[in-house]
Amino acid sequence: MAEIKNSFLASKMNKDLDDRLIPSNEYKDALNIAVSNSEDSDVGALENILQNTNIYPISSETNIGADDGKIIGKIVNPANDEIYLFWTNYKDISTDKLSNHQASSFGSYSNSVIVRYNPVLPSGESSQLVIGRFLNFSETSPIHGINIVEDFLFWTDDRNQPRKINIKRAAADRFHYVSEDDVSVAKFAPYTPIDLYKNYSGTYKTTMKDATSELLPDETTANPDYNPLYAGDSNYLEDKFARFSYRFKYEDGEYSIMAPFTQIAFIPKQDGSFLVGDEDLAFTSTIVAFMENKVDQISLVINLPSAGEDLHADYKIKEIDILYKESDRIAVSVLDTVSVAEVALQSLATNVYEYSYQSRKPVRTLPQNQSTRVYDKTPVRALAQEVSGNRVIYGNFVNKHTAPSHLDYQVTVNQKFTSGLVDNNWSYIEYPEHTVKRNRNYQVGFILSDRYGRQSDVIL
After folding, report:
1. Half-sphere exposure for 208 (CA within 13 Å, toward CB)
2. Which residues contact 129 (CB under 8 A, 6 or more apart)?
3. For 389-404, what is the mean pLDDT?
4. Of 369, 376, 375, whose CA–CA distance to 330 is shortest?
């Protein structure tokens, strides 16, 4: 009997015609098949494909700690034959599917996990990259926006702010990421400015010092701030109005926005006072010679969000940049970069780090796009996400938090307190020569910000 062969190049299922009338390159019915598209002689042949099978049961037996969960998102990485699964057994039953949080779930244990699975290996290799209720996944918020960029896994679920993890770090330690600050794309933004005062043996004083003059302006009294080991340039700040700030560098190379800058670090020579003969000299020369900056050494007191030894564990901070800006220049420069290890040596059990600045030139200037970067435009929530040219793009997003309809506040202007600390007023100690200019009208503006630097418009 002759052997009948049929090619299915059309890859078309035809259920309209009678079996005897179906063309040779079409078929009547099929189950679990694929049409070969190879360039060999078997092109157009039908091949069996495997059906779905349960290869990785996610349950309490796999150390997640709960059963009856659901996969709410997945992505395949063909480069290394891996599948990333987003699993949770929590279901938000609030009306808007946003109000409830896993931490408020009582009566049953809930959890969220990111699992990595490799189906190619003979026994199948799986591991938990991140586990914890802080992920706040919900079965009611499927994850549609997932992308892999080099070693980073980005995702967004329209429930939480956009997030990302370093796959290699998570694979090495599944408890490397333990909080929202660790996984959010928007990083914690420092919001406290540098303090220019501190406690000196029970007395609070400004940290702006004249450390190079052996005598006080009366030329008879020894200068208590004199530093014989001074290593800076005593004249560098003499004609400058400088401000100081800082920013954080995180373990994956991101930088936070800059903290608020200090006021100008300026104290005039002779503390702004006329001594004997100064009035006559000023009258004849029309120059007040002592109106130059006497400050040449400053202790920059930085209030950290955690103790120095916990900065990396709590916020994944790697380094701190000390920043410098002059009043007549747009550029922001870096005075020094301090590693977290150095900070921990000084601030082991305290959240205050003190950097000693002896007036010297900055080491480098920041790019212009960093000088004008006052906040990060990472959305509060986003439904869609895609990558183009190694840039992460969000769509259908909520750009910022809703500002309150009104603010209750009171603004007053008073004389500086020159003795004691009335109502915790430190202004006289921190900036002894700074004043509010008279004969001017002032308008107060508020900017509201969250801990990740997303800011509201100015509220006047």
Report:
1. 27
2. 84, 114, 115, 116, 153, 165, 167, 170, 171, 174
3. 89
4. 369
